[in-house]
Amino acid sequence: TMVNFTVINIGNQTEELFWVSLSTVVDHEGEFLYEEVANTSTRLVNGETSTTISLTWNPDWEGDFDLIITVDSTGILAERDENNSFILPVSVGPPEQPGGFFSSQAGLFFGGGVVFLLIAAGIFLALRLREDEGEYDDWEDGKEDRFEGEEVTNFEDFNDDVVDEQDYPTWREDDGYLWRELPDGTNQWWDEEGQSWNDYQA
Q1: pLDDT digits (tens, 9 = 90+) for 143-198
Q2: Topology (CATH) of 2-125
Q3: Coil, strand or helix at 144
């Protein structure tokens, strides 16, 4: 069964690669069984704000399922106001008897019984990936607002005061964590849950 859906980005433009997964959840004798059945990588390029993805799912159970689509399933992208999953209840019936047109396929039904599944799910990514130019502009605006109407004679003192707002070199490790290097040579890692930089402890 082919599952088609559309991913829409309403945040800042990014061309960074991210993963999209298709999973199933079934209630089996009171125990919820979760299984990722398909995944693929994609990216938004050339100023695109949406992309259509197709994943193949071959049901191997009969009964009621929750079909879950997850965008950025590996947590690569830094985001704000995440809404990255879409859940769709489906029901899988027994295969057709031999000789039927769909004898090798399990029937996939939406309540009344539709054979093919076509999902048009707009999953909104409010990406908080900041481009270097945008960060610098924000920093300059903050400096101007802070000293509006004042004569600044010592910018070294000013820079010391706003050290936390400066744009330091950043990179992302294979484990998905975002790192930055401070002028003194020490490194900090970004705590996505706490929304703060933390010193690296060797």
Answers
A1: 565 555 555 454 444 444 444 546 788 888 888 889 888 888 888 989 888 888 89
A2: Immunoglobulin-like (2.60.40)
A3: helix
Domain layout of the chain by residue ranges: 2-125, 132-141+165-202
- Whether the CB-CB separation of 25 and 88 falls below 8 Å is answered with no
Count Cα atoms within 13 angstroms, Cβ side, for 16: 21
The SS3 call for residue 6 is strand
Q: What is the spatial distance between Cα 26 and Cα 53, in angstroms, rounded to a whole number?
A: 24
Phi-psi region of 184 (alpha: psi -120 to 50; beta: other; left: phi over 0): alpha
Look up residue 121 and give its amino acid. Answer: A
Q: Looking up tokens 């706490």, which residue turns up?
A: 194
Q: pTM, whole model, 2 decimals?
A: 0.43
